[in-house]
Design brief:
By secondary structure, the protein is mainly beta. The chain is built from no helices and 10 strands. The protein is globular, with a radius of gyration of 15 Å.
Length: 127
Amino acid sequence: MANLLASMVDEISLSLGGHFVISDASGGDPGPGDVAPRVGPGIYAGPSGLILTSRLPFRTSRMVEENEHFVRYELWDGTPEALESWEVLWNGELRIDSGAIALSEYISEHEPEEFEPFDLGETGVSW
């Protein structure tokens, strides 16, 4: 049975339909060159990061200008058991050279916000 070694929660607010990235905390393109391939609803995976699209699970009559997303990072010593509540699972590989990952806005119309990096404990590793 796998054990949880560390976890952290971060949040980002975006306009509906905006994109955010989880990638190497040192910066860098999650999908250098071509557009990263789609791996799930609103999720694209490149060689060193994920691009996610801000979406609401249902339509409301109210206009939503900002959409908060909470991201929970987890570091395990093995593969955790999948929960029944998980709708989509993605199996793939990400190259994280710095040993830390962080959120960022994919395209920002203002000064990019700084997000706290999550330490993976190893550098130069494919996960």
